[in-house]
Write the structure tokens for this entry.
Amino acid sequence: MDAPAPAATTDDGTPVRQLGVVTVTGSRPTSLPTQIPTTMEGVTRQDIERSVNATDSEDALKYFPSLLVRKRYVGDYNHAILSSRASGTGNSARSAVYADGILLSNFLGNGVGGLSFPPRWGLVTPEEIERVDVMYGPFSAAYPGNSAGAVVDYVTRMPTRFEAHAKVGYVAQPFDLYDTHATYHAKQASLSLGDRAGDWAWWLNVNRTDSEGQPLTFVTRPAGTALPGTGAVPGLDSANQPWLILGAGTQYHTVQDHLKLKLAYDLGPTVRASYVFGWWRNDADGNTESYLRDAGGLPAYTSDFALTREKLRHTMHGLSLKSRTRGEWDWEVAASRYDYGRDDKRQNAATNPLPGAFTGGAGTLADGSGTGWHTLALKLTWRPPRAEGRHVVDFGLQQERYQLRYRSSSIAGNYLADAAGALVSNVQGDTQLRSLWAQDTWQLSDRWKTVLGGRLERWDADNGLTEIAAVSPPLAPHAARHETDSSPKAALSWQWLPRTLLKASLGRAVRYPTVNELYGATSTTNSQFINDPNLRPEKSWTAELSAEQELGANALARLTFFAEDTRDALYTQRTLVGTTTVNRVQNVGRVATQGLEAAFNSTGWLLKGLDLWASLTYADSTIKENAGFVNAPGDTIGKQQPNIPRWRATLLASYRWDEHWTTTLGARYSGRQYRTLNNADVNGHSYMGVSSFAVADLRVLYRFDKQWSAALGIDNLNNDQYWNFHPYPQRSYSLELKFDL
């Protein structure tokens, strides 16, 4: 057999495969360890520009195997959660997203609600991206248990000479659903500048998004209900029961501004200091539309029609000092901070219905200012001098601390402008994770390589407070907690034949409860509180067996068997507290997942100029044990885990006709899913349902010259109407014009 390829020696940070273990080099910040012992997929800036209609950074993941981002419209800031093989779109805390080594995942909570907890995608724009890498499963010791599903790492641009880039884009979405018939628009503009002079390098990116999304929620009533007007649309709910749709809600108009500044300074030939500053502003109006008309033909409303007005100002800082000797020792120190400087959400009260609420009146103000997180990490890499590159040890120390401050208040006068009034609820708390990890990579021979590692973690939760004004006396602060766990990891790769590689990986992940899961609360008429500060952490064992086959110099096929067994998964469901039935986050005893993932990619293999990416995934994810329930004890046992389809597939074919024209056709498929633990939502094609979908996408790129290019795109070409609780976008048309210097 041929000798394995040597590790990369360039500074561009591109991952290189060596006996199935990905080696990462380079001087730019990254969250990745130098050795990655598991399945990894990547996409470059050139791939994205050529093949993907990318209006947001998460669009870069659109065609990755087994991944889905629940993006509902351009600029979706509060529901775009990443789903992976065995983690659904309600489990944001089971995947980790980084940019330039800075944590973008929001581990203050899991899923959506209140502050909302998807990754902070808005802190990266598509124009910044140099490449995106995805590591599947919790097989690297360098990551906490939040990596159970996947780790996404964005590496953004850092220039080696003067660069200037400008882009303008436009998206139109004709939308037709129930009694809503409208076209929604999104406009974007982005400008980037960068240069390197001597030991200094800098990069500046500014971006504005002005987007109108389609309605996301709907006001409903059971069939036969008396209404204040006519015009309700009859339909079937997710349980196939008849209901009436009275109107549409949560139609966002969001204006977002993004600023990113990056500085790098070479302190010498082997040490680089880097600083990243990100600023994100969002003003979002959530509007509503009634289908009902009174006797005079004017819109009629019930108390369910809500208006929201949000103002958000978030900042991000990252600082790193990194050596790149490629000798016996390399090291890195990195710190980051993410701050909710302002996070206000105003909403009219049920006692202040429309149309009066358009101009003011009573309402509420939810204030998340003071919330955020910070991280600190030390990484060391040791390459024993006598090993000649066949032995690498990575190890490090990490600390992550999350602070939640969320206060809801009533406003008696004008909810659109007045200051907060009487307290409604106050939730706060802190969690901290301190970790020690090590990972030892040995190339035992030309055909064998092994990676052994482990994490030792201490988790603390303190300062927990759940205060609800309706509860008397006030609830006492929650007692502090701590847990200590270890997570072993192991991987083995074998070059069975010159072009056939076999790999096996095994890893344990401990995903601790988030602050919001522990202390978040909602008061109802029949219950005082629905939080549980004694939740147990999720503990998963994940295994993976892969075969990779090279089909020539520019084609690779992979088949992967994966299995995950999770104890104490965290979901919201019902339980009995004394004689009262309450909804709250609880531990689900055991969820087991098994599946197969096939992936293929090639560049000019079948035909010169033709690039192909394809994947097919089958997953059987079943609830095996559970003390909680949805409607009756035992009704979730044997049911499919929510938001995990049995089948999903992607296909992307990109053809370069000449130096000017490139045409790309993409396809995405997902099978039937359920939103509820007991799988009672049998009608997926309905508001609150989760449907199957099959959509095609088109992109045509034309390069006028080296500086100018234009693209026409159509997403959801076949205009499939599909759902994930909310309706996804219907057929959308995009135009973009770009300048590169």
Q: What stands out?
A: Confidence is low (pLDDT under 50) at residues 1-11. Residues 105 and 119 are 4 Å apart (CA to CA). The chain is about 0% helix and 55% strand.
